[in-house]
Structure formats: structure tokens, C-alpha cells
Amino acid sequence: METYVYILIPLISAAIGYVTNVIAIKMTFYPLEYKGLRPFFGWQGIIPSKATKMAEKAVDLLTRDLFDPKDVFARLNVDEINRIANDKFVDMAQRIADSVLTTRVPAASTAVGRSIKPHVEQAVAKVLPEAVGNSMERIKENIKEILDLKAIAVEALKEDKSLINKIFLDLGGKQFRFIETSGAWLGFLFGLGQIVTCMYTSHWLMFVAYGIFIGYITNVLAIKMIFEPAEPKKIGPLTLWGLFLRNQRAESFKYAEIISSRILTPEKLFDYIFRSPDCKLTRQIMEDEVSKAVDEVVRKLPSLVKIVLTNQKLSELKSVAVFTLMHELPLYIGVIYPYTETALDIRNTVGEKMASLPPQKFIDFLRPAFQEDEWKLIAVGAALGGVAGFLQSFFSM
Predict the structure, then answer these.
(1) Where are the domains of the chain?
(2) Which of 199, 261, 306, 341 yields a CA-CA distance of 20 to 30 A from 77?
(3) How far apart are CA 78 and CA 57, in angstroms?
(4) What pLDDT, in 10s, does the model give residues 240-292?
(5) What one-character DSSP code corresponds to residue 282?
(6) What's the DSSP call for residue 202?
(7) Contact, 318 vs 290, CB < 8 A?
(8) Residues 6 or more apart from 214 whose CB is under 8 A from it?
(9) Helix (H) or strand (E) holding 234
(10) From the CA atom positions of the chain, what is the Rg in Å?
(11) Tens digit of pLDDT for each residue in 336-363?
(12) What is the rounded distance in angstroms from the CA atom of residue 4 to the CA atom of residue 135?
């Protein structure tokens, strides 16, 4: 071979290492949906293809080590919630009174019924804050049974499939860029070894083999350098330490920011508490408290209305009141979201706890979620390296 070819070999090897790593990382995250013909002629990003499974693993780690729903929800002050939502309770009381009177109280359509409506609204407005407050206290006490964080996370990913990518790219952005650039440096070094081999043979299979080797080894070494060693190790003047571990505090708060702003938001939490298909315990709590409140309201009604309120009618009235409150409360409760976000303080809670985790537990938040498919990233790098090596053989002949 010509001298210039020997000079170009490490440069081409560096390009192979860089390009294969860049493409392999892109294929790890994109496309979000499967493109092509199943099952063999197409591709979906490794991370998006495992989105639900990864969400479940991430939430398991979150609830095990970082987030105790009962402790966090204990920070909510029900009196403060009632104070903030006071104006909304007046509107809500009117809607509940309208719903109950027009559907379950026969006298409501008469002149007498119309005359008592303001009294009913006033009575409901008085008992509603206490009913909601008592319900919230009981919900706080039973929040672990009511709130399914895994279901909330999976639903959030269904709504926005790019969210799982954002978690990994935000946490591992610097590390993935390191994989890309390290591919170039490692490729260059292995290219120097390839020069020696080329002095003895320039067979095209040698270039393919080197391409596969470079594509494979650059990914393997880069991944190891991100996560290992978990603790700093001194070797002479050098300190070896997994890149991901060096920025534990900063990475922890990136993760916490995504969790608090995109997944465990006040809106999603309360929507699940009051509207999820599994909110049976919430409904039972509301029924208990509303039943007490309705009894108090009925006690204050004029005798004419009490006469027509049989036990069956009263039971139906309570059911309508519960149904209306369960429907209306999430519509009005948005007014407390800013307070709730501040009180729960999920970002700082998760961030501080994650930052203080032992190194191996911290690694567990990023690596195990896709470790079982790590081989695909490495295999893609090796395959692309083989293709690049095959093309290089034509240039070097």
C-alpha cells in the first residue's frame, strides 16, 4: 500500500469509532415508534421500545429509596387548602345544591322549593369545607393505598413517549457525548495497531474484522468508563472514577426536576386520587364525609322538604352529592396546585435523597433500566463498524 494509506488508516479508524458510536446512540433513542416491517426489517429505539418496563423499574427505585408518599403528603395543611379554595367552595356548593335539588327533591320545582334553594346553598357552603378538609386528612392518612405511582408514571409516558428519552438524555447527556468522542480517540489508537497488521496483509476481511472490533470495543470501554469504578481509585497520578458518579448531585436534581415537573405533578396526583378507575377508597372516604355533611344540611332544611325525604330519597340524595363532588372537586382544585407544589416539594425531596445515595444505588437509577438491552447498543456499534471496515477495504486496495 502507498504511504499515505498507512497515514489515513488511524484517521479512518477514528472516524469509524466516532460515527458508529454516534449512530448507535441515536438508535438507542430513536425512532420513538417502530419503523419498517416487523419483525426483522425495521427498528425502534431501544429505550422507547422498553418504555413501560423502564418506567416501572424507575418508579420501583423511586418509591423504595427516594419518595415516601405518606411523608410527603403529610406536609399538606388542610386549613391552608381550605383558605385558598374558599371562593371556589361557594361556586361548588351552588352546583352541588343545584344537582341535588333538581334531581332528588320533589319540592324543589315548586315555589317553596325555589325559596329554600338559597338556604340549601348556604348550608352546603358551610359544611363543604369541613367535608373536604376531613376527606383530605383521611386521604393523606391512606395515600399509600390510594396513590399508584407506577400507574401515574406509565400513563405519563403514554401521553408523551419522548419523556423516557428525556430522562435518560438529561441525566446521561454528558456521558453519551463522552461515548461519541471516546469512539474517535479509541478508534485512532486501535488504528495504529491496524497499521502494523496492514504491513503483513491488506485482505478485505482484515479491515472488516478491525471495523467490527473497533465498533465493539469502543462502546464496551465507553460504557464501562461511565459507570466504573463506582468509587474513586488512584493509579499513580490518575484518579479513575465513573463519569456518571462524578456529577451525582447535579444529575440527581436533573432527575428530580423531570419527576416533579413532568410526572408527579399536583395535577396528575390529584387527578389520579379523584378520577382514576381505582379510586374506590377515595370514593368511600368522600361518601362517609359527604353523608355526614348531608345529614347536617337536611337537619337545617324546612319541615316541608323533610316530609318528602324518605330514607331511600335521602340515600339517593347523598349519592348524587358524592357523585357531583367527585366530579366537581378536580375542576376546582386547580387553585391549590401552586401551594401543593411548594408544600410537597418533590423536586428537593427527591433531589437531596438521590444525591446522598451510595454510589452503587445511584448507578442503579440509570443503568439497570436498560442494561439487559445494552448488548444491542454494542452489537449495533460492532455491525456498523464492520460495514465501515468493508468500505475502507476498497479505499485501501
Answers:
(1) 3-67+158-246+358-396, 69-146+264-353
(2) 261
(3) 33
(4) 777 778 788 888 898 899 889 988 999 999 989 888 877 888 888 888 888 88
(5) H
(6) -
(7) yes
(8) 13, 16, 17, 20, 186, 187, 190, 191, 385, 389
(9) strand 233-235
(10) 31
(11) 999 999 999 999 999 999 898 888 888 8
(12) 80
